[in-house]
Write a structure and sequence with these properties.
Blueprint lengths: L1 H23 L2 H17 L8 H22 L4 H25 L1 H12 L2 H6 L17 E2 L13 E3 L2 E3 L5 E2 L5 E4 L5 E5 L5 E6 L4 E6 L2 E6 L2 E5 L7 E2 L8 E2 L1
Antiparallel strand pairs: 1-5, 2-3, 3-4, 5-6, 6-7, 7-8, 8-12, 9-10, 10-11
Helix pairs in contact: 1-3, 2-3, 3-4
Length: 245
């Protein structure tokens, strides 16, 4: 731990020495030195420009030294210190602007890296990722034949409607019935194809949808359309439903 502290101080000593040196030298000598360093950073030419980090450190630590030298040169009175404060305000503002200008490419670099090179952009898919929906057509069975229930038992067609093996009773008769592949939904096609009746067996909710037809099942959910050739929509995405609990 002591060695780490010693290494930190040894790296800081040249900067402190540079500040003290410029504070002892006349301000009219130190100020041109700082301006020359700033010019090298702006031009970015020559082998000295490769040491940009060292030069920027020299500006940060050298400016306080020059500001200390100003009141020494003018007698150290209140006016001299006021001039030093004004110089500090102007100098550190210019220094912040210079560093912002030097770091302009560094701020843009993450954006370019995130966007990728043009071959990657050309090969990348356009738009949001979409999934292909494949509907499993409903297997309609005649209600009078007492079709099998995927969850066990048979469907009984009575005068008051359909009786399922789990005790559910669906009122209103239709010519054909169908179950979802997992047995979670029971569908009844109304007479004259006037609509569809859907019974959600897990949530115990009944949907009577006039004018809709059952196109198929996807992920155990019904997809419906109003007419042939129309894009099917999932039941849960429909804004308003004629539900009966």
């Amino acid at each position: 731990m002591a060695w780490r502290h010693l290494s930190g101080w040894s790296a800081l000593l040249p900067a402190v020495a540079w500040t003290v040196l410029l504070a002892l030298l006349p301000w009219w000598f130190g100020l041109p030195c700082l301006l020359a360093v700033a010019a090298v950073l702006l031009l970015q030419q020559g082998p000295i420009a490769r040491q940009a980090a060292v030069l920027r450190c020299g500006l940060r630590w050298g400016l306080p030294g020059v500001l200390i030298a100003v009141p020494r040169a003018f007698g150290g009175d209140l006016l001299a210190w006021g001039a030093a404060l004004l110089g500090a305000l102007a100098g550190f503002t210019l220094l912040a602007g210079l560093e912002a200008w030097l770091d302009r490419d560094r701020r843009r670099a993450p954006e370019v890296a995130a966007s990728g090179e043009w071959p990657e952009l050309a090969m990348a898919p356009i738009g949001p990722v979409t999934a292909i929906i494949e509907l499993q057509p409903p297997l309609w069975q005649a209600a009078a034949e007492g079709p099998d229930d995927p969850r066990g038992g048979h469907v009984q067609c009575c005068a008051d409607g359909y009786h399922l093996a789990d005790g559910a009773r669906i009122e209103g008769a239709g010519p054909a019935v169908a179950f979802s592949p997992d047995g979670g939904w029971f569908a009844v096609r109304m007479s004259d194809d006037r609509g569809i009746v859907l019974w959600d067996r897990d949530r115990h909710r009944l949907h009577r949808l006039n004018g809709w037809t059952l196109c198929g099942w996807h992920d155990g959910q019904p997809w419906l359309a109003r007419r042939d050739g129309e894009m099917p929509v999932a039941l849960q995405s429909m804004a308003s439903l004629d539900d009966e609990s």
